[in-house]
Amino acid sequence: MNISELKQNVDLKVSGKEMHEWMLRLYPICRSITGNGVRKTLDILGAYLPLTVREIPSGTPVFDWTVPKEWNIQDAFIKDSRGNRIVDFKASNLCVVGYSSPIHQRMSLEELKPFLHTLPDHPDWIPYRTSYYDDNWGFCVSHRQLMKFKDDEAYDVCIDSVLEDGHLTYGEYNLQGQCSDEVLLSCHICHPSLCNDNLSGIVLLTMLGKLLQQVSLRHSYRFLFIPGTIGSITWLALNEASASKIKYGLVAACVGDAGQITYKRSRQDNAQIDLIVEHVLKESGDPYDIKSFIPYGYDERQYCSPGFNLPVGCLQRTSYGDYPEYHTSADDSDFVRPESLQDSLYKYISVFNIIENNKTLINTNPKCEPQLGKRGLYKAIGGQGETLESQMAMLWTLNLSDGEHSLLEISEKSKIRFDLIKKIADILTAENLLKECS
Ligand code: ZN
């Protein structure tokens, strides 16, 4: 199967449902930038993709950073004086500040309060907080819950966590194509029970990997399932020589909410990936937004640091920070919809369709138009309800195939959809009216 056939034949509805089911399975796991939650996540994904799991020891220097100690947590709670767990890690892993150091202590509310985080504007939601690089601990609770705490109560506060030398774990999957030019697909796997920010990107890349396995590919595809920031820094530090193979790249995050699709350009601003994604979104007819690069966001920050400046953008739906559910317990499995995952999947496949099929051709008969009628070419494309458009596509493709314009540029200039330009180019190539640039 080739990528065009995949684009036509993939059963998006089934894929959308399947991704949502995977998400539900991954949802309860307590992930962080290191630890067993990441391993368990990669182990589950391993059933769909032959992932290579890499373990990088704590203390490994990675550019200006150091791989941190590994954090694992067994349990955490706040008990009232009657022994009731009023805050319970087993009920929601968001209740513990990520990377909290261990503690077991009896405390008054006054002592405990500085370590409790809430969202007064959304009293039923639990915030998501982390403290990766300073020795701290804390609990996240709903504001409504905090209101029930009593001044005269003694609370039994426990975080049963371990922070010690171990490893940073990430998953990598390489799909070898005909050439070594690479398409990088990256997602972060470091958030606990959060769906749009984290799990949606994970399940989307897993599905894309599963589908692309069946396709004969021109480019090689590299999938990274890494903890945010430190994961991409680590990968880049350990694979600096390979980074130059990356010709296109997308960071997948927040791809499952009901909002419109948003593309954040690479730092280069007009890299091929930027032009391709913009073309796909324009051609889709759906509302979309394009944002310029800013040095804040997900792992594109590292891929687009000036020492790498890779052509990597971020293709998402609603940007982080633009939806109130972001980094709260409300970013749950209802917030991510199968039909939104399905739509994101289709747009990613449409991007790959152009990456795989775009090329620059040369007209072998450039002096005046070739006589198409005598070659039966009008007939070849007739009878498909698109004759006039196909004829125009043929004229545009012949005229602009001067070795300077790619099929994507021809599609842009002619305002004729890429797939039709590609189909016409194949017909003209078969007739020896076009040939590949050498
Ligand atoms: Zn996040």
Describe the structure.
The strands form 5 sheets. Strands 1-10-12-11-13-16-14-15 form an 8-stranded mixed beta sheet, sandwiched between helices. It has a 4-stranded antiparallel beta sheet with strand order 5-4-9-6. A 3-stranded antiparallel beta sheet has the order 18-17-19. The chain has helices at residues 3-9, 12-26, 36-45, 109-112, 143-146, 195-212, 230-238, 240-243, 272-284, 300-303, 338-357, 377-381, 387-400, 407-414, 418-430; strands spanning 52-57, 61-62, 65-66, 70-79, 85-88, 103-108, 116-117, 139-140, 154-164, 167-175, 182-188, 220-226, 246-251, 261-264, 288-291, 312-316, 360-363, 402-406, 434-436. It is built from 15 helices and 19 strands. The longest helix has 20 residues, at 338-357. The chain starts with a helix and ends with a strand. It folds into 3 domains: 3-67 and 167-357, Zn peptidases (Aminopeptidase, 3-Layer(aba) Sandwich); 70-164, Glucose Oxidase, domain 1 (3-Layer(bba) Sandwich), CATH 3.50.30.90; 360-436, Arc Repressor Mutant, subunit A, CATH 1.10.10.10. Helices cover 34% and strands 23% of the residues. The protein has 438 residues and is an alpha/beta fold.
